[in-house]
Amino acid sequence: MLAHDGELMFATSPITENVALLVQIAHTLATLVFAGVVFCEVLVVRLRSTPRMLRRVRSAAGVAAIVLAPLLVVTQALRVSGRNLVDVVHPVAWVSAVWWQLAASGVLSVVGIAFALVMLAVRRRGGVPVVAGVAAVLAAAAAASVPVLLGHTQSVEPMWLIQIVDIVHLQVAAFWVGGTCALALYYAGVRAGERGGIATEAAHVTVRFSTIALVTVIVLTVAGVALAVLVFDEPEALVSTSYGRILVVKTVLVLCVGVAAGWNRRRLLPLIERQPNDEAAWAALRYAVLIEAALLVVVVVISGLLSDADPHGHSGVDAAAPAALAVPVRS
């Protein structure tokens, strides 16, 4: 165990640390993809019968997030309690390390995703489609907010403000990550003629996505700046801490995505609106969206590293873990 500020902190094996981090990143990625696909499906595509490939990917992401939710709880509890992975068969050794935010994150992700899937099924069958669509979006948004319950930003004050900013940040990230994947899959469905795709309609879908994306870029920029101001005490922390350096890399990648999206909006979309049957323009747009999606996946992975890094450069157990898990030193 490690001594820190008069308390004993449990030391976790590197294997447990790495597995817990990988599970957390995978769960976050699956949840954001699911939520973003739901957002795009309801708010952008707006069709009850969406392309089959899009539904399959949405369901696969949702099921993956549900399966990973209990693994997230278990691996984080093992990590905080200083146990090895083999101790998973001895729940008594680590169950007490499950703090309420961790338990809530597992429950919220499972319930939110399951409810969203049910509402989408109701919407597809024609039962109160508007209400079902709104309910699905809200449930997916709740699931996408789960990462705010974990990570070192839990130690930053004022907590209520940083949590609001973080939630907004996560919703925008979900729209971009899942939305770009959904848009690429939608293009594939139109290309295959799955829904008798009409190029003009696909162009309208693209314009709607671009319009919402433009608004979210502004929101993401404001939320990102606000998050950095709340987290860092001094500007030099951007280069003097691992959290700051990772944040800089993430920001550069997001700017690259923004540049690609701006190019799509200013060059490709006007061309497609004028010539909706221009296959070369559609091919260029598909490739551009796929590149954006790939970059955003990398951004999510980096965000997972950020959630594991201490913004103040301290060492010790995860700041999101409850203080009760620290054992006072007896003199």
Describe what you observe in this structure.
The protein has one domain (2-322). Residues 1-9, 193-197, 315-319 and 323-331 have low confidence and may be disordered. The chain has nine helices and three strands, in the order ββαααααααααβ. It has helices spanning 14-45, 52-81, 100-124, 129-144, 159-191, 199-231, 237-240, 242-274, 279-308, and strands spanning 2-4, 7-9, 327-328. The chain has a three-stranded antiparallel β-sheet with strand order 1-2-3, with no helix packed on it. It has 331 residues and is mainly α.
- Assembly type of the shown chains? single chain
User: Could you give the order of strands across the largest sheet?
Assistant: 1-2-3
Distance between the termini: 16 Å
Number of strands: 3
For the largest beta-sheet, the strand count, sense and barrel status come to: 3 strands, antiparallel
| Secondary structure category | mainly alpha
- The percent range for helix content is over 70%
> How many structural domains?
1
Low-confidence stretches: 1-9, 193-197, 315-319, 323-331
What does the average pLDDT come to?
76
InterPro entries: CopC/D (IPR032694), Cu-R_CopD_dom (IPR008457)
Protein name: CopD family protein
Transmembrane segments: 20-45, 57-78, 98-121, 128-150, 170-188, 209-231, 243-263, 284-306
Pfam families: CopD
